[in-house]
Amino acid sequence: xxxxxxxxxxxxxxxxxxxxxxxxxxxxxxxxxxxxxxxxxxxxxxxxxxxxxxxxxxxxxxxxxxxxxxxxxxxxxxxxxxxxxxxxxxxxxxxxxxxxxxxxxxxxxxxxxxxxxxxxxxxxxxxxxxxxxxxxxxxxxxxxxxxxxxxxxxxxxxxxxxxxxxxxxxx
Length: 171
Hints:
Blueprint: H1 3-31, H2 37-48, H3 60-90, H4 95-116, H5 126-147, H6 149-157
Helix pairs in contact: 1-3, 1-5, 2-3, 3-5, 3-6
């Protein structure tokens, strides 16, 4: 495995995912009349223990601090996704495993968010979180899909990811 390629692809995929989420929330917050509210709220919760969304002040340290945490987290997710893309390219039936792990990751993300940010959940629209995660997953997935042409070829040959039949078929 080419580790430098994996880290490069994962880093770029992570930046794409982080950028998609950040852009979505910037647009959503701006439409609501409070640009940068979401990263300020989450940064204040992470770094200063804020529990009351009414006390959020949009401040540079909270926004930048949370943005850095956000980019690092997405970079790690991007590296894992790049590793899975490489695996699916070599062994196409593992696509099902990747889909199941993605679903488990999303459910786990929402559980962790509910446990850690319960006081802030009223201010953080679940629909916006779901939409932003979906856009990020599509952006990252499309980027990795374009870099791994053998995935496309394998999906054309085996659209459901099934392995080639090694034996004879029953009549």
